[in-house]
Amino acid sequence: MSTKNDNKEKLNFALGREKLQIAGHWIRNYCIGFLLMLGGKSPSPDKFSNNIFSFRRITLAPIVVLAGFIFEIWAIMKKPKESDKE
Fold first, then answer.
1. How far apart are CA 66 and CA 72, in angstroms?
2. Which of 82, 68, 66, 72 is nearest to 19 (CA)?
3. pLDDT reading at 77 higher than 60
4. How wide is the angle at C-alpha 51 spanned by C-alphas 49 and 54, nearest 5°?
5. What confidence tens digit (pLDDT) does each residue in 3-62 have?
6. Residue 16 CA: distances (Å) to CA of 2, 26, 52, 57, 76
7. How far lies 41's CA from each of 52, 83, 85, in Å?
8. Contact by Cβ (8 Å): 31, 68
9. Cβ atoms within 10 Å, residue 64
10. What is the DSSP string of the chain?
11. 37 phi and psi, to 5 degrees?
């Protein structure tokens, strides 16, 4: 009588383990970029606050998110190692 382990087939995912790990790191990078964009509201709706124009929100956060998208595309298109092809 065969058991489940004997009949178990290897699952073939579209992306290998290494690519999925890289993708996970860059998804975390997106989240960090969007968290950097948070804040900057004024204490009162009647008064304008210049906090929304800080370097962090205008420059740094979009660069972090854009780098995440670029490296995510690179991670998907990267040629897999021989060990991932098995």
1. 10
2. 72
3. yes
4. 145
5. 555 445 566 667 777 888 888 888 898 899 999 988 777 778 888 878 888 899 999 999
6. 29, 16, 41, 35, 10
7. 7, 50, 50
8. no
9. 19
10. ---HHHHPPPP--SS-HHHHHHHHHHHHHHHHHHHHT-----SSTTS--GGGG-HIIIIIHHHHHHHHHHHHHHHHHSPPPGGG--
11. -80, -10
> What pLDDT does 64 receive?
93
Tokens of 24: 């996970």
Which single residue is written with the structure tokens 């790191």? Answer: 25
Distance CA 9, CA 32 (A): 38
